[in-house]
Design brief:
Blueprint lengths: L19 E5 L4 E4 L8 E6 L4 E15 L4 E16 L4 E5 L9 E6 L4 E5 L2 H38 L2
Parallel strand pairs: 1-3, 2-4, 3-4, 4-5, 5-6, 5-7, 6-8
Length: 160
């Protein structure tokens, strides 16, 4: 059974803070973003646990794991993102509709699978347009079927 340790990183608007390193052994790390981006460099290290990220915005972010998976979403990194994993898989969503991910990043893995999904405004618009085309298709399909039924009924009544 794994225990849970809550660590709250300081946030400061303007200026920079000292770098923060969180290192655990056989523990998962879950990091959740907040309204303000973290103004410091953050290093997350776990030897055997997973790293879960949720909407992170920071100056620099370094993630290192031996056998754990790295999953979640990173909204923006001001400078650089470094990810090192020996045997863990990586599945990240980078950016969002308002903030495309344009930061420099380095990923090093020995045996893990890497899946990166870059979200941009164009991607969101494609989903919206696709949704409206689907609605139009459904509307047209039902309109077409109802129209033919009406015409067939008219023809049947006129033949009597």
């Amino acid at each position: 059974m794994k225990s849970q340790i809550n660590v709250y990183l300081p946030q400061q608007f303007g200026g920079t803070l000292a770098p923060n390193t969180i290192q655990v052994k056989n523990q998962d790390i879950t990091m959740v973003g907040s309204d303000l981006p973290y103004q410091q460099d953050i290093t997350l290290i776990t030897s055997d646990g997973d790293v879960n990220l949720n909407g992170i915005r920071a100056q620099n972010l370094i993630i290192r794991t031996d056998d754990g998976d790295i999953v979640g979403s990173i909204t923006s990194i001001s400078n650089e993102l470094n990810i090192l994993t020996d045997d863990g898989d990586l599945s990240l969503i980078l950016g969002n509709a308002q903030t495309p991910f344009t930061s420099k990043f380095t990923i090093t893995t020995d045996d893990g699978d890497v899946e990166l999904n870059f979200v941009s405004e164009k991607y969101v618009w494609c989903i919206i347009v696709n949704f409206f085309f689907s609605l139009f298709y459904i509307y047209f399909f039902f309109y077409f079927l109802t129209g033919w039924k009406f015409i067939l009924r008219k023809l049947q009544h006129s033949n009597k």
